[in-house]
C-alpha cells in the first residue's frame, strides 16, 4: 500500500518498501506458526480470530482513515506508530458494504472536525482495541513500524445472521437474506452473538447471560436456541479447519539468516538463486533514501560484510530490503565469512 492505495507495480516487496510502500500480510495465521498459535489460543474466548501483519516505512501511512466491519486488536511488534480513533461511528456495527472510508467516503473535514476517543503512539508491546465501526487512522514518524492486527470477524456472527441461518425460510416465509435485512434495521441485532455460547473459556455467569439473550431473540424469529448455536458452530468449522491445516510454504530472504554475509557479485558469477532478477536498470526509492542508496550500494566491495555493520544509516527493515534488491539487480550476492558464494538452501 502506498498513499492509501494498493500497488503491484514492483518487482518485489523489498522494492516496494524502499519506495515508501507499506507491506501487508493478510491471513498471516495461515503462513506463520506464531500467528497461527495466537489465533488458535484465542478460541477459548473468541469465536474466531485471525492475524494480519503491517510493516510501514518512516513518515508513511498504509491506508487512509476508515472503519472496519470487525473488531480488531492492534499489537505493536517493533518501532512506533501513532493512532487516532474517532469517537462516533458513522454506521453502528457496520457490515462489509457499510464500512466508512471504504464503502463510502468520509466527509472532507472528518479527520479535522470529528471528536476523538483515542490519540496514542504505540511502542513495542502496546495493544490498542478498536471496536467494529469506529473510524481510525495510523501514521509513522521517524522510525518504521511493524504491527499485528488481530481481527475478530464479528459482523459474520451477528444475532441477526445466526438466527436467520437457523430459521431458513420458516419465519414469515422470508429467506435468510430477507430475515437479516429486516432484523438489522435494529442496532441490537447487528451485535455479535454472545461468545460464551461457543467458547469454553468464559465463566458460568457470562454463559447464563448469553443463554438468556439467545432464548429471547430466538423466540422472536421462532427458532430453537440450540439450532442457533448449531448454525454458529457449523459456520465456524471451515474457518477453524483452515487454521488447523499445515502452514503454507514461505519465501524467506536468506540475507537475514544468521552467519550470512554479502559482497559485490564478481564478473561472470551466477546470480543468487531464489531471487527474481530485476533488469530494469533503475531503483525507485522514497525521497529521503534517493541520495543515500547509491552510496550504500557502493560501500559493498568483494570483501564479505554484514549489512548491519555497513548500513547503520538505514533502519533494519530497509537494510533487508536493500540487500534483497541489490541481489535482484545482480550487484550483490550472499556468501559465507570467507567470501564463498552461497547457493539456494545453504
Lay out the secondary structure:
Layout: H1 13-18, E1 23-25, H2 33-41, E2 49-56, E3 71-79, E4 81-86, H3 110-113, E5 116-122, E6 127-130, E7 136-139, E8 145-152, H4 159-167, H5 176-183, H6 187-190, H7 204-221, H8 225-244, E9 261-264, H9 292-299, H10 307-310, H11 316-328, E10 332-335
Antiparallel strand pairs: 1-2, 2-8, 3-6, 3-8, 4-5, 4-7, 9-10
Helix pairs in contact: 4-5, 4-7, 4-8
CA gyration radius, whole angstroms: 25 Å
What is the CATH topology classification name of the largest domain? Jelly Rolls
The CATH class of the largest domain: Mainly Beta
Shape: elongated
N-to-C SSE string, H for helix and E for strand: HEHEEEHEEEEHHHHHEHHHE
Examine the secondary-structure arrangement and name the CATH architecture of the largest domain: Sandwich
Structural class of the secondary structure composition?
A: alpha+beta
Please outline the major beta sheet: 5 strands, antiparallel
User: Count the strands?
Assistant: 10
The average pLDDT is 88
Note poorly predicted spans. 250-256
Q: What is the terminal separation in angstroms?
A: 33 Å
Provide a count of the helices: 11
Assign the CATH superfamily of the largest domain. Answer: Cupin
Side-by-side strand order of the widest sheet: 1-2-8-3-6
Descriptive labels:
single chain, 346 residues, alpha+beta, Jelly Rolls, 3 domains, 5-stranded antiparallel β-sheet, 3-stranded antiparallel β-sheet, 11 helices, 16% strand, elongated
Amino acid at each position: 500500500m502506498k498513499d492509501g492505495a494498493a500497488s503491484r507495480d514492483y518487482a518485489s516487496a523489498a522494492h516496494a518498501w524502499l519506495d515508501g510502500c507499506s507491506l501487508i500480510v493478510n491471513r498471516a495465521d495461515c503462513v506463520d506458526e506464531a500467528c497461527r498459535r495466537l489465533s488458535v489460543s484465542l478460541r477459548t474466548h473468541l469465536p474466531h480470530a485471525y492475524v494480519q501483519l503491517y510493516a510501514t516505512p518512516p513518515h508513511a501511512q498504509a491506508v487512509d482513515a476508515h472503519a472496519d466491519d470487525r473488531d480488531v486488536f492492534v499489537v505493536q511488534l517493533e518501532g512506533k506508530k501513532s493512532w487516532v480513533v474517532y469517537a462516533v461511528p458513522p454506521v453502528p456495527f457496520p457490515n462489509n458494504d457499510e464500512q466508512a472510508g471504504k464503502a463510502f467516503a468520509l466527509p472532507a473535514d472528518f479527520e479535522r472536525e470529528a471528536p476523538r476517543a483515542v490519540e496514542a503512539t504505540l511502542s513495542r508491546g502496546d495493544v490498542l482495541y478498536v471496536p467494529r465501526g469506529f473510524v481510525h487512522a495510523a501514521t509513522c514518524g521517524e522510525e518504521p513500524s511493524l504491527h499485528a492486527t488481530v481481527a475478530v470477524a464479528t459482523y459474520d456472527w451477528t444475532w441477526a445472521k445466526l438466527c436467520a441461518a437457523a430459521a431458513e425460510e420458516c419465519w414469515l416465509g422470508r429467506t435468510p437474506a430477507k430475515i437479516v435485512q429486516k432484523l438489522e434495521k435494529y442496532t441490537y441485532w447487528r451485535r455479535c452473538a454472545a461468545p460464551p455460547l461457543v467458547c469454553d473459556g468464559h465463566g458460568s455467569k457470562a454463559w447464563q447471560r448469553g443463554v438468556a439473550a439467545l432464548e429471547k431473540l430466538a423466540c422472536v424469529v421462532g427458532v430453537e436456541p440450540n439450532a442457533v448455536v448449531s448454525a454458529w458452530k457449523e459456520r465456524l468449522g471451515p474457518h477453524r479447519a483452515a487454521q488447523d491445516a499445515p502452514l503454507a510454504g514461505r519465501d524467506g530472504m536468506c540475507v537475514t539468516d544468521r552467519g550470512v554475509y554479502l559482497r559485490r557479485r564478481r564478473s561472470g558469477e551466477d546470480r543468487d538463486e531464489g531471487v527474481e532478477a530485476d533488469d530494469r536498470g533503475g531503483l525507485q526509492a522514497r525521497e529521503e533514501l534517493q541520495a543515500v542508496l547509491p552510496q550504500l550500494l557502493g560501500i559493498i566491495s568483494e570483501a564479505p560484510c554484514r549489512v548491519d555493520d555497513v548500513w547503520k544509516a538505514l533502519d533494519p527493515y530497509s537494510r533487508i530490503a536493500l540487500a534483497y534488491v541489490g541481489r535482484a539487480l545482480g550487484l550483490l550476492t550472499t556468501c559465507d565469512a570467507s567470501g564463498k558464494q552461497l547457493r539456494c538452501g545453504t
